[in-house]
Design brief:
546 residues, alpha/beta, six-stranded parallel sheet, four-stranded mixed sheet, 17 helices, globular
Length: 546
């Protein structure tokens, strides 16, 4: 390696969609859109890079609840139906525009080809299994796949350590079943971290409850064989470790030296390098030539207009043209590589040693929100590969090659607003957490009460109780409600899962009494199992005291 080696860039993509299958078609389409516009295009560019001799070395989190949805037969069938529907709408619009709008007609043809190609690749190249396609990339050493809480729950707010442990145990089992190995690292949902110390319920009507000591999240991670996670730079800067300079130039050990175990490593997301992509106001995706996400053709949902100007009303958007975008993508990818190199060079001159820069994004930004994003990623990874002064590594590869030397302490924090928990814990969400806390407590009572009972049908009911609880704990519902983005959907889903959980609890005790239930109860259990068709192997013993 060159004596002028400046350092390493780590690219982390966080992929997550909450559980949407079998609930309503509009919300199912979140998943189908993400698969068509992000997951398959991402696979395309990763395999394309490999064919050119470049190993991409990207770290990708696929949340367990997303992975479980992507491998269901229901998803496979409905995704292909979705592609067929989009092809039909595009074909109809092609005919509509033929006589009066050749530019729109041309774009309708491109959309038709896009969905034809997407469906063909899904069926043939990836054999109807997106997860297996990512697994092959990891098995061949080209990427690293990390895990997440089973249903993307916000750890700082959960009231029971057994709940956090269950989320981690379920995540690990799901990962091992789908990827054939154990995960090394984790993306904490919303980057939500809570240190060890006294904890009290964040609810007005539970203020009288006495605070009690709880271990830090990192202790539960280590017990589940997970030895690194990612935090945002603003979280890192809230560290109380005065001896550590709050500029993320390397990895760091979380200060848990009192534990007799391997210390947990922190990777710190660089704010400026990340904002260059995700911040629409200053980043590349807001460029006027790129395809506008928000303006869609009625009926088909196809997008025919470019951003034009971020300040413009939708009425004034101009028709999109693919040609100017091709050079722009290369320019923006080259500029971003230069930005990475400039920051690494600055670190090198200050410290006289090679440094580290980490950028982390929601994967759905690339392709779904920013249509040109996957192609931009392809060009960026080519730029980095061609530069001997910087390298691209996965998190585990970097952790194995470079050990941390500094220990830091972190407060409770997240990558949300103000780097605190306020997006997921606030007065407007007290009714949400009251339901979750009551369900957590009831699940612990169930586990204890039925501890030694191995009746097969009872275990079936208890496993479904766990599935409903896990989905109930998803941080997505709080986010939707707190930010007023699809608030009604988040509220409805939370209430539905809580009600189903309570009915299943009653069913468990009813079965205990006489080992007999009627057709209505049996049908209800079967409906729940068919609707929440994820996580084959939850264990009630997870909810016993740890």
């Amino acid at each position: 390696m060159s004596n002028d080696f400046l350092g390493t860039y780590i690219l982390i993509l966080h992929s997550h969609i909450p559980y949407v299958l079998h609930h309503d078609r509009m919300n199912e389409e979140w998943l189908y859109e993400a698969a068509a516009e992000t997951y398959i295009p991402l696979l395309n560019i990763l395999y394309r890079l490999i064919r050119t001799g470049i190993s991409p070395k990207v770290t990708i989190n696929i949340s367990p609840v997303l992975a479980e949805q992507l491998v269901t037969n229901y998803f496979r069938e409905e995704f292909q139906n979705y592609c067929d529907q989009k092809i039909y709408f595009s074909w109809e619009e092609e005919k509509k525009f033929t006589s009066n709008d050749p530019m729109m007609q041309r774009l309708a043809v491109l959309w038709k080809k896009f969905y034809y190609k997407t469906k063909r690749l899904f069926q043939d190249e990836y054999e109807g299994n997106i997860i297996n396609a990512f697994r092959r990339l990891q098995d061949e050493g080209h990427i690293e796949i990390i895990t997440c809480a089973a249903t993307h729950s916000y750890f700082p707010a959960l009231s029971k350590d057994v709940s956090i442990n269950a989320q981690l145990r379920m995540a690990r089992l799901s990962y091992e079943r789908l990827f054939g190995r154990s995960p090394a690292g984790i993306w904490l949902s919303e980057c939500g971290y809570r240190p060890s110390g006294n904890w009290s319920f964040p609810l007005t009507n539970r203020k009288h409850h006495q605070a009690y000591y709880r271990p830090g999240v990192e202790e539960l991670l280590a017990k589940n064989g997970l030895y690194y996670f990612i935090v945002d730079q603003e979280q890192f800067q809230k560290s109380s470790s005065a001896e550590v300079e709050k500029i993320p130039w390397s990895t760091y050990y979380l200060d848990n030296s009192h534990l007799q175990q391997t210390p947990v490593t922190l990777f710190v997301r660089d704010t400026k390098l990340s904002a260059q992509i995700w911040n629409f106001d200053v980043g590349y995706p807001g460029e006027g030539e790129y395809l506008d996400f928000h303006k869609k053709h009625w009926g088909s949902g196809n997008r025919y207009w470019r951003i034009t100007d971020k300040r413009l009303d939708m009425e004034y958007k101009k028709v999109y043209s693919p040609e100017p975008v091709k050079d722009l993508i290369i320019q923006h990818a080259g500029h971003y590589k230069w930005s990475i190199k400039r920051t690494l060079k600055s670190q090198f001159f200050k410290t006289n040693k090679a440094g580290l820069k980490v950028a982390a994004f929601d994967a759905e930004l690339f392709g779904h929100w920013w249509f040109e994003g996957p192609t931009w990623l392809y060009e960026l990874l080519k730029w980095i590969h061609s530069d001997p002064e910087i390298s691209l590594l996965t998190c585990s590869a970097y952790r194995e090659k470079y050990s941390s030397s500094e220990y830091v302490r972190l407060p409770e924090s997240s990558w949300g607003k103000n780097a605190d928990s306020s997006t997921w814990i606030n007065n407007g969400l007290e009714w949400v957490w009251e339901r979750i806390y009551s369900a957590e407590e009831e699940m612990c009572r169930l586990a204890s009460h039925f501890r030694d009972q191995k009746d097969a049908f009872l275990q079936r009911i208890l496993r479904q109780c766990i599935r409903e609880l896990l989905i109930l704990q998803s941080s997505d519902w709080e986010f939707m409600i707190s930010t007023n983005s699809t608030k009604d959907h988040g509220s409805r889903r939370l209430v539905e899962h809580h009600e189903d959980f309570k009915k299943l609890v009653q069913l468990a005790y009813k079965w205990e009494q006489d080992s007999n239930i009627g057709d209505n109860d049996m049908n209800f259990l079967k409906e729940c199992e068919d609707r929440e068709e994820i996580f084959a192997d939850p264990d009630p013993d997870w909810y016993l005291q740890i």
